[in-house]
Specification:
Layout: E1 5-9, H1 13-24, E2 28-32, H2 36-55, H3 61-69, E3 71-74, E4 85-88, H4 94-107, E5 113-116, H5 123-127, E6 136-141, E7 150-155, H6 161-173, E8 177-182, H7 189-205, H8 211-221, H9 228-235, H10 237-251, H11 260-268
Parallel strand pairs: 1-2, 1-4, 2-3, 4-5, 5-6, 7-8
Antiparallel strand pairs: 6-7
Helix pairs in contact: 1-2, 2-3, 7-9, 7-10, 10-11
Length: 283
């Protein structure tokens, strides 16, 4: 399938990054959020980010302007009707995503593909909200999207070979390195990474070591570029807490039980960088 028109649902950090990446590859992009004002603001942030990249010599001004011209902010889900591909990047909430997939399925042309940027929710479950399960798959990007190379193309139980190949090929066109995997909690990266982050929170809760010491240990002992607690703050405490809940729910395995400290931090509004405080404080 020749994908030329992409519609991104959710204009947050991930959705904006996906929209920028798609536009830089030459795709026309609809960037949707609950209101057009939110989507417009996100396009403004994309413009500012591209401007910084131009100043550093990574892009020409002409390339940045051409990409921006391809991004159309909108608050109307109906604008997805003529697109080739929808990439859903809404909040990591199964009920929200299922409702969106049902609505989008009714709006889209028959051959369009529905993809989700979910990091933990079952693609097969999301496909069940549609009448096109063969054209539903995961397209999981990593943060920050413009810089991170990996894309996990996730096959639900009924995802067709053509759909998986179309998304794998598109990821390469985006300049990414795709891997194809089956529908399983956390797919590949988060199945390995998030339990480690959760365990780091347990180490803090149990007083085994201070956050700075834990991060220093992993950076110097395992050659990680960033410690697990600093990474928790970057991703968002609420995001990892939600993912671990999904893991536990889908598997029934207590090894995925979210650390109680993460729940307390979410309740206290200590979500990491985006709130100015998590395991560390930010100016």
């Amino acid at each position: 399938m020749n994908i030329q028109k992409v519609f991104v649902v959710g204009a947050g950090q991930m959705g904006s990054g996906i929209a920028q990446t798609a536009a830089m590859s030459g795709c026309a992009v609809g960037l949707y959020d609950l209101t057009a004002e939110i989507a417009e603001k996100s396009k403004g942030k994309i413009a500012a980010g591209l401007g910084r990249q131009v100043e550093k010599g990574r892009f020409t001004r002409e390339a940045a302007d051409a990409a921006l011209a391809l991004i159309t902010p909108t608050g109307a889900l109906e604008d997805a009707a003529d697109c080739d591909l929808v990439i859903e990047a809404a909040s990591e909430n199964p009920a929200v995503k299922l409702e969106l997939f049902g609505k989008l399925d009714a709006l889209l042309k028959p051959q369009a593909i529905l993809a989700s940027n979910t990091s933990s929710i079952s693609i097969t479950t999301l496909a069940s909200a549609t009448k096109r399960p063969a054209q539903v798959a995961g397209m999981h990007f990593f943060n920050p999207v413009p810089a991170m190379k990996l894309v996990e193309v996730v096959r639900g139980l009924l995802t067709s070979d053509d759909t998986a190949e179309a998304l794998r090929s598109l990821a390469e066109r985006f300049g990414k390195t795709p891997i194809v995997c089956k529908d399983s909690p956390g797919f590949v990266v988060n199945r390995l990474l998030d339990p480690m982050l959760n365990e780091a929170a347990y180490l803090v809760m149990e007083g085994v070591a201070a956050p700075e010491e834990i991060d220093k240990a992993m950076m110097n002992g395992c050659n990680h570029p960033m410690g697990p607690l600093a990474l928790l703050d970057l991703i968002g405490i609420d995001v990892i807490y939600s993912i671990m809940q999904v893991f536990q729910e889908y598997t029934g395995d207590q090894k995925y039980r979210p650390c109680p400290l993460l729940r307390q931090m979410v309740d206290a509004g200590l979500l990491g960088r985006k709130t100015g405080k998590g395991f560390y404080e930010y100016g």
